[in-house]
Specification:
By secondary structure, this protein is mostly beta strands. 5% of the residues lie in helices and 36% in strands. The strands form eight sheets. Strands 1-26-25-24-23 form a five-stranded antiparallel beta sheet, with no helix packed on it. A four-stranded antiparallel beta sheet has the order 2-29-28-27. Strands 3-4-5-6 form a four-stranded antiparallel beta sheet, with no helix packed on it. Strand 4 and strand 5 form a beta hairpin. The radius of gyration is 21 Å and the shape is globular. The two termini are 27 Å apart.
């Protein structure tokens, strides 16, 4: 098997001196001053994402020999029962352009994710860690998930639609329009036990890097100077954005209903149900290309889900501000205890990218620091006790002492 670090990462060029330098980072960490506020109490403090030089997460980096991973942080004592003390964060693969939408197939024992700009889906196999191209082209897919029958669901930026890959190998277009108007660029999706699918529809696919801009005159191509058909198959690049940024419920009958409007949750992104499916969490992110709506503020909203599938009692669940820094949420997942795990995009604020964990009351109880912006997450592994994190160019994973709720 090809070493993914040799083939796709600068880490493949690590020298012996680099390894020695990393191994000695614990000594340097002790002298790093205030930046090591959480680990500097011990002269043997291990390197982390915030040390200089920073921790090396690759298989060739120094092993994590400490009982508690220094980048798994218990903000509240309640998090101690969720983290697995003797497990460390591992980088499983690197080499993507912008990886998103990790989803776990319990039947196939593999992880699938989207490499959006490369228009492909990748697969990591549990038994030997092999990574290969799973599906190409993928319609510049973003969010992926699996339903209660083990079928993969994908949100396609390029084709502005939601598709389901059937067990016989065929594919079904579940939704591509609402009231005769094309969807924007479905982003993330969650299956409900009643057979319905709930998905968000922000405008992020309307850009060259992750899909196709609008035809000339559309919101993401108002000047008409961009040719959205370049490099595309026939029929792509002709659509213009027609709808606000809504969240939808697709009934098993095929009926598509709006569950939240752009005014309620502008630019909706990740979404997740509570373990009992009585609450729905939706995060609101920043404005997309050509977006003239209110735009998100980088926060998370929660709704009560009624027996009639209507949402009510909207509340601001979390503003995602930590130490004055917005840890912008994207992908969301709940564990079986009802805690919400949210990916964190804090930009250049080293030490705040990764995952933020909230209890059901919206209090931050834990954080996982990664060396890259994290876009999405999912629970997986045979016991569903491993958190997989799609972060910029790489896939990371860490074992936990809890399990994810619902299918992958």
């Amino acid at each position: 098997m090809t070493d993914p670090y040799e083939a796709t990462s600068p880490e493949g060029a690590l020298s012996r001196r680099a390894l020695i330098r990393t191994a000695g980072a614990g000594v340097l960490a002790a002298a790093a001053g205030p930046v090591l506020a959480q680990t500097a109490a011990s002269p043997a403090a291990p390197p982390t994402t915030i040390t200089n030089p920073p921790r090396d997460f690759s298989p060739r980096g120094a092993p994590t020999t400490y009982f508690w991973d220094p980048d798994v942080i218990a903000v509240d004592p309640s998090f101690n029962g969720l983290a697995q003390p003797n497990a460390s964060i591992k980088r499983l693969w690197t080499g993507g352009l912008w990886v998103e939408g990790p989803a776990w197939s319990a039947q196939g024992q593999y992880l699938v994710w989207s490499d959006i700009p490369r228009n492909r889906q990748m697969r990591w196999i549990e038994d030997d860690g092999h990574v290969s191209v799973f599906r190409a082209p993928s319609g510049n897919s973003n969010g992926n998930s699996f339903d209660f029958q083990g079928r993969q669901l994908s949100c396609e930026h390029l084709n502005r639609r939601v598709v389901r890959y059937e067990l016989d190998g065929s594919a079904t277009v579940l939704a591509d329009s609402f009231q005769g108007k094309k969807l924007n660029s479905p982003n993330d999706i969650a299956a409900h036990p009643d057979g319905s699918y709930w998905f968000t529809d922000p405008p992020y696919g309307g850009q060259l890097y992750e899909g196709a801009p609008d035809a000339a005159g559309g919101p993401s191509n108002a000047s008409g100077k961009i040719n959205p058909r370049l490099g595309q198959l026939p029929g792509i690049g002709l659509a213009k954005r027609e709808l606000p940024t809504n969240t939808y419920r697709l009934d098993p009958s095929g009926r598509l209903d709006i569950v939240t409007t752009e005014q309620q949750v502008p630019d909706p992104n990740g979404l997740a149900f509570s373990p009992d499916y009585k609450k729905l969490y939706i995060c609101s992110t920043g404005k997309g290309p050509g977006d003239t709506g209110p735009g998100g503020k980088g926060d998370i909203h929660v709704f009560d889900v009624g027996a009639d599938n209507k949402l009510s009692n909207q509340k601001l669940f979390a503003d995602c501000m930590i130490d004055g820094i917005n840890c912008g949420p994207d992908g969301l997942r709940c564990d079986v205890e009802g805690n919400l795990w949210a990916s964190s995009n804090a930009g250049r604020n080293v030490g705040y990218n990764g995952v933020t964990v909230f209890n059901p009351a919206g209090k931050v109880i834990g954080r996982i620091r990664l060396p890259e912006v994290c876009g999405n997450i999912c629970f997986g592994g045979p016991k569903r006790n491993r958190l997989f994190m799609a972060a910029s160019q790489s896939i990371y994973a860490v074992y936990l002492a809890t399990q994810g709720a619902g299918p992958g």
